[in-house]
Amino acid sequence: MPKGENHWNWSGDNVGYHGIHTYVRRRLPRTKSCEKCNSARPMDLANKSGKYLRDLSDWEWLCRKCHMLSDGRMNNLNQYKPIEERKYATRRTLTYKGETKGIAEWAREIDIPFFALMKRIQRGWDASKAIETPLKITTKQL
Q1: Burial of residue 39 (number of CB atoms within 10 Å: 0-12, 13-18, 19+)
Q2: pTM higher than 0.85 for the full model?
């Protein structure tokens, strides 16, 4: 079977991302530790120049952290924020008869499903109506 440039599937310099990584992974021996920090974490194949050439000296084996630091991806990650500051962590609260609790707490207290109470609030019901109105039980639920 022909190899290299003589192979029928040879793409030359027009090879894609996956193809060039496969080419280099087969030819560049994997190191036992990261070439930057010497940790023995799992290794990624990292391109030094960002040009994705077939030149093996343009590639190195790095741990995930060093790889992300070298290509700038680490800077794009959201930095750690305390749970109180995270956008998704803000809980919906209801104030009823001067008492403020989360919707889940009210649902447990009045013994109705959380989603039923949440839907009532989303549909614009005020807190007293949402909490005081009993559930309608249909024949499908029995």
Answers
A1: middle
A2: no
